[in-house]
Amino acid sequence: MNKRIIPDTITSCNLLCGSIAVFLATQGAFVWAFVFILAGAFFDFFDGLSARLLKAPSPIGVELDSLADDITFGLAPAMMVFCWLKPILGWWAGIALLMAAFSALRLAKFNVDERQHDSFIGLATPANAIFWGGICCMPYAMLAYDWMGWCVLGLSLVSCYLLNAEIPFFSFKGWAKEKTVIISFLLGCVILIGYCVTKAILNHHPEFALFSGTACILWYVTLNLLLACTRKK
Q1: I need a surface site. Which of 53, 160, 176, 214 has the fewest CB within 10 A?
Q2: CB neighbours of residue 60 within 10 Å
Q3: Cβ neighbours for 158, distance < 8 A, ≥ 6 positions apart
């Protein structure tokens, strides 16, 4: 059996999860859409790992991985934001779909950028997808006023910028160089996840536990922006 079939099959599972997430978003099932985005992230981690362990990398696998990632981490979260905001902003919510295009651009740049072996230049698409997935799982009470919807839409444009910005973002692959920073990030995540889960239990709103992903990505972005400003000085 061709060993390349295994990582390519795992990548295809990522693509399937993303496609299901897009469909669920159009049905307003945002929690389940987010669950399938997370499942896609699980498969995305293991397709590259399996290719390295089996020593079965392939040019087709690289291209398939980018296509799958754009569906799961580009189109799916963009569709979630669009469908979440459409009842409030109407067709103006379609601006959020720009995230799918900017995610594709970010993935294409990643494939040809030799600087991103142990870190990222720009926000990684899975991180962006997790950030938006958690937001869209929150109840509509969060958008009590129309201006809140416009703020969320504006934030989607900020995401488009961060995806392709020339800003370094640390990766777990760079553990040797960024050990202190990564440990600080993980400790912050433990605190944020504990807070969100506790609040979800006490307030009987289980969807708030999913917001912990959004909080962790916000902490990740903030930490990297602070590091970027410090290193420039």
Answers
A1: 176
A2: 11
A3: none
CA angle 93, 97, 100 (to 5 degrees): 160
Query: What are the DSSP calls for 19-57, one per residue?
Result: HHHHHHHHTT-HHHHHHHHHHHHHHHHHHHHHHHHHT--
Q: Give the pLDDT means over successive 10-residue stretches in the chain (233 positions).
A: 73 93 94 94 82 69 85 95 91 94 92 78 93 85 69 93 92 80 93 91 82 93 90 65
| DSSP for residue 115 | T
Name 142's Cβ contacts closer than 8 Å, sequence gap at least 6: 148
DSSP SS3 for 123 = coil
Helix (H) or strand (E) segment spanning residue 199 = helix 175-203
- 192: tokens are 């944020």
Flag whether the pTM goes above 0.85: yes
Q: Which residue has the tokens 């905001």?
A: 85
In this structure, are residues 196 and 157 in contact, taking their beta carbons and an 8 Å threshold?
no
123 CB-side CA count, 13 A: 28
